[in-house]
Design the sequence.
């Protein structure tokens, strides 16, 4: 494939030649009589005649075709990135949902803890022990909600990789039109689970599968 | 009983250590990845809880390395991860992992799996 600047130069040169040939024909045509035979004689008298004009038009067509092809290729590349954008959108929604779930979980725990504290203030000794145990249970549950941080980190890592891939595509497209991008961005590619959020949503089902596999393994070991 | 908790997420390590303390296990060593964990691993470690996706050395490779070490043939390994595909779980089994927890987990699930691992280790002995 020729460099873009060379392609553009050749295209322009070809089009100028076509333009010049048409102008020459037009200027000469005014002097011609309406007889088509006379017109043909005139054209054939030009350097190269119709053959030269045909060659010039063909060259211009080829150059234009190449440019159109590049535009099509770049459109295909841009189109393939639509899927990546969709994936990123999905992952960001998962992060948002995980954050919201965690926030709600913590708020619910705090609210329940407040109720327990209020009950503790007026409780008799018999109820106090049970209320303290319940309060401890609520407080112990709070850190569980913070696991969203790990899931979010994996999703954001996945998004960073997708963005890095998109940038490579854009750089390829820019390269086709001789408009190179700046230095590539360094992205830390790992380690993360691309399906972390999906796994979070499906964790109970996946846990059941894991339990089944390990139960079978334990049975085999003890048999 | 001395636990080795391996996870590259500080938050996850804190959550696990917090949960372990609530269950009653207070002797815990923590490592940021499999490579780091290998420097802590010796005969004094009675139980390993490890993540899968970690830099430098994954939890899977760490489990394999522990099993290859004479001191690590029988130490229980519990994997806590987001990887829930059946083939991942089978791969973990083949690497020598004793049990598996999907994130996010609750302290009660952690306790149940630890108890199960310890029971099966005693039964095997």
Sequence:
């Amino acid at each position: 494939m020729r460099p873009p600047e060379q392609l553009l130069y050749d295209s322009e040169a070809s089009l100028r030649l076509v333009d010049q040939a048409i102008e020459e024909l037009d200027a000469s045509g005014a002097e011609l009589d309406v007889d088509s035979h006379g017109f043909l004689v005139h054209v054939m008298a030009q350097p190269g005649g119709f053959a030269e004009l045909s060659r010039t038009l063909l060259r211009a067509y080829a150059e234009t075709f190449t440019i159109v092809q590049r535009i099509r290729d770049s459109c295909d590349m841009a189109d393939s990135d639509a899927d990546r954008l969709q994936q990123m959108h999905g992952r960001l929604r998962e992060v948002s949902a995980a954050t919201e779930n965690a926030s709600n979980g913590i708020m619910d725990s705090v609210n329940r803890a407040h109720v327990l504290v209020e009950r503790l203030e007026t409780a008799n000794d018999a109820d106090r022990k049970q209320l303290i145990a319940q309060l401890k249970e609520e407080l112990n549950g709070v850190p569980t909600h913070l696991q969203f941080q790990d899931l979010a980190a994996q999703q954001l890592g996945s998004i960073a990789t997708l963005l890095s891939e998109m940038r490579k595509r854009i750089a390829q497209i820019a390269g086709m039109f001789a408009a190179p991008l700046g230095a590539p961005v360094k992205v830390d590619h790992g380690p993360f689970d691309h399906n972390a959020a999906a796994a979070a949503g499906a964790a109970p089902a996946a846990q059941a599968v894991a339990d089944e596999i390990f139960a079978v393994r334990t049975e085999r070991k003890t048999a | 009983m001395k636990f080795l908790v391996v996870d590259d997420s500080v938050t996850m390590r804190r959550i696990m250590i917090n949960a372990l303390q609530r269950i009653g296990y207070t002797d815990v060593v923590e490592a940021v990845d499999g490579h780091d964990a290998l420097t802590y691993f010796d005969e004094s470690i009675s139980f390993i809880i490890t993540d899968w996706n970690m830099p430098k050395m994954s939890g899977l490779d760490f489990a394999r390395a522990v099993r290859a070490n004479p001191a690590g043939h029988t130490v229980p390994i519990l994997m806590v991860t987001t990887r829930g595909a059946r083939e991942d779980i089978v791969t973990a089994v083949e690497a020598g992992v004793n049990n598996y927890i999907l994130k996010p987990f609750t302290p009660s699930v952690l306790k149940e799996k630890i108890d199960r691992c310890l029971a099966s280790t005693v039964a095997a002995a």
User: Anything to note?
Assistant: The two ends of chain A are 67 Å apart (CA to CA). The mean pLDDT of chain A is 78. Chain A is about 85% helix and 0% strand. Chain A touches chain B through 34 residues (CB under 8 Å).
